[in-house]
Amino acid sequence: MSTETKALNFLEHIIEEDLANGLSKDKLRFRFPPEPNGYLHIGHTKAIGISFGLGKKYNAPVNLRFDDTNPAKEEQEYVDAIKEDVSWLGYKWAEELYSSDYFQELYDWAVLLIKEGKAYVDSQSSEAMAEQKGTPTQPGIDGPYRNRTVEENIELFAKMKAGECNEGEHILRAKIDMQHPNMLMRDPIMYRVLKKHHHRTANDWCIYPMYDWTHGESDYIEQISHSLCSLEFKPHRELYDWFKEQVFGFAKNKYPMLPKQREFARLNLNYTIMSKRKLLKLVEEGVVSGWDDPRMPTISGLRRRGYTPQAIRKFVETVGVAKRENIIDVSLLEFCIREDLNKKADRVMAVLNPIKLIITNYPEDKEEWLEAENNQEDDSAGNRKVPFSRELYIEKEDFKEAAGSKFFRLTLGGEVRLKNAYIIKAERVVKDAKGNVTEVHCTYSEDTEKKVKGTLHWVSIKHAIKVEVREYDRLFTDEAPDSHTDKDFMDFINPNSLKIIEAFVEPSLTKAKIGEQFQFQRLGYFNVDKDSTSQKLVFNKTVGLRDSWAKVKPKENNNLQKQPQQNKRSAIEQIKSYGKKYDRMQDQQREKAKAEIQELAKNVTYEDLEPLFGTAVKKTGTRLITMISLGVLLDNGLQKNDAINDFISKALNDKNELLVAEASALK
Hints:
Elements: H1 10-20, E1 30-32, H2 44-57, E2 62-66, H3 76-88, E3 96-98, H4 103-115, E4 119-122, H5 126-132, H6 150-161, E5 171-174, E6 189-193, E7 207-209, H7 211-221, E8 226-230, H8 237-251, E9 260-264, E10 268-269, H9 276-284, H10 299-305, H11 309-319, E11 327-328, H12 330-344, E12 346-348, E13 350-351, E14 354-359, E15 367-373, E16 383-389, E17 391-395, E18 399-400, E19 410-411, E20 415-418, E21 423-431, E22 437-445, E23 455-456, E24 459-460, E25 465-472, E26 498-505, E27 517-520, E28 524-528, E29 538-543, H13 549-552, H14 558-566, H15 571-576, H16 587-601, H17 606-609, H18 620-635, H19 642-652, H20 657-664
Parallel strand pairs: 1-2, 2-3, 8-9, 10-11, 12-27, 14-22, 18-19, 20-23, 25-29
Antiparallel strand pairs: 4-5, 5-6, 6-7, 13-26, 14-17, 15-16, 17-24, 20-21, 21-22, 25-26, 27-28, 28-29
């Protein structure tokens, strides 16, 4: 038994206490019990991580059990998808089991309960049953069939099983207490007639056990030591215990251990729905292309979008195990994938919104293959060659005819560095009839040691590969789309959640394989979608290099929006005012502050910020707000120099996790 308790979560404390009270460690057994009526989503990853994590910690088996008691909604497709998702996340189950394996045993126990006078066949309509069941503040009343004889109940239940009854004609109920304060204990349904084809038992059964009856008894049959489930099942615990205590008298010699149910807070994300029924509606109504649409919160959707199992597991670990419900900001999930891909994704150059750049003093027939580093975070990644020629594409946003001192990209008369290549100077532009710039004419210098503030990515036009890029935004515009009583969650669908772009990428991507992940430099992380063919590559945008939503959300709050406008202090002074308290803020408060800092940083110059690089180590808050502001300047094209690299490097070695996270995003 483990003696380390400092870092234990409350579930581990329960297990440690049971072990201390005599439970043998070799009796520990856990399970993950999904119902195969849809694809797993991000919310399930917490339940998966908890059960399999405990299995790993205590070297105990973990079963994958499908609670397949409703053939009307369950399919083999979902079984296969669930197995694939759990395996992809990196977990191995001890046994693959099904509640349908226990249908006969459950039926036999139900007959024994009838014989003991603890179950009966009810023949009321569902409306009548609902009425006589009462309310949370009003006790129920006994129904007209509650006192049927044992013989009559046995006969009717046998007819139900034999297919001699219609759906809805009869049900089997447990006989507990119609006045019980817990409504779940007011004679709950155990069996209903359902003449549907089952994906495993075919047409062998036409009565199916209800979840509350099946779930606990399946745990008992499998001798699960700790049945862990989310908080919505806490009111069910009393019924769970009642059922298991009844069957214990029938099978204690065969199954000597009674399982213990305990509940944890499920995983809730903002801008996301977790109901499989509602996710199915998105699929059926064509809002998304399928369960694995990259906008879906399903594990298969996240996988297709480019999320890694390591990032998802890190996310679950970071969220932790709690007793109370809370809502996690989706930006934490996005941070985890950025952190993971930063270490492993090769850097390449791609242009999503091109404008033509012509280097007039570069020979027309000349081309060079320049050396480029694949990933500075991975020493084993090596280098590649990228072609350079007279005509290039750069991002349209990277050029302005005229701009202020805070724009570090290309302007007329200004100089920037082309990544892995030369320094160029914009001399003139060519415009179309509407006055739009169509070409930027530049000259280049072979003096690559010259200091300039901006660095741009590019692709050689004659070598570029045309690809399709799918840029995804959040599927819902509301933080809690299914929480409104007066509106349907479908009312909050984001009409701009998918943007399809014709883009150009460097030729090294010609042989990119489906699922392969890359950082498009200065743009974000992308992976190759399964729709790709040998003739056409399709890339999904996994996530941007930094959280762009943090900058948008405060605009919803008029007070926050007006504060910077009303304050007459300079932007850098306002930013510095956050330094004393930033690292001590609560998560939500800090998120709002970060968005305000990022907005203010748009009006800050490098000269304003550079003196803060020497801030004392103990002043963590100031170093944090400096790092956040630096990220905005780098987004606007500021080139890293020795002072910047040194500031980031020191932060990466700091003990403060917030500072390390901000610095990691700028590497």
